[in-house]
Amino acid sequence: MSNQQFKVLYNGQEVAVTCVGDRSYYVQISYKPLKLEHKLNENGEHEWVDLDSNVETNLSKHIGSLIHEQRGVENDNVHH
User: What global pTM score does this model have?
Assistant: First the structure.
């Protein structure tokens, strides 16, 4: 089974997104893909975590919101 791919608009440019798991995505913003995971934090709030730093950054949050608009993933049943 191949990974699902789609595009989001980021700063007016189409950016390739590859779904690599239930809630994980690779986003080709630059030469190195941004690796994101959608999950709940300890307060039960949705976060888009940059897997390289293991924290939510401004960029991961913004790209995550674009993915959410495209896919509606915030309605997933997310568990720690």
Answer: 0.76
d(CA 48, CA 80): 13
Calculated CA dihedral for residues 29, 25, 17, 14, nearest 10 degrees: -50
Q: Which domain holds residue 19?
A: 5-72
Number of Cβ atoms within 10 Å of the Cβ of 34: 21
Q: How confident is the model at residue 73 (pLDDT cuts 50, 70, 90)?
A: low
Tokens of 39: 């999950």
Inside any domain, residue 80: no
Residue 23 DSSP label: S
Q: How many folded domains does the chain comprise?
A: 1
